Structure prediction request, 120 residues.
Amino acid sequence: MSEAVAQEVVAFNIKVTALCPWGVRTDFLDESSLRKPANQTGQYSVVEQTLAGLGRLNHNQNGDPALVAQAILKVVAMPNPPARLYLVTGALMALQSKIEEVIQVANANAELSQSIDYQD
Prediction:
């Protein structure tokens, strides 16, 4: 989405960058920010597992908020900032993994994808 917005506002000399952070060590997962369901049922064990994982992650994230702020200032100073910026090593690793997955699926289905080309 940031790429589309960036293209729409470039004529107004507005630059857009979507920040894609991995875990940044903030209070976002504390009780002051994260609200858990009052009534938990066993029917949504995946939600309960996710909340438990977030609890273990709280204040153990790799990202340093001060360094994130410095990175944002560097992006603001760039004459041509990226449309997306992946922050923290985990974000890059997740992106690279997703890219590899997309390539594998595309290659595995290339024949089917190409089979619908219009034939003269």
Remarks:
- The mean pLDDT is 87.
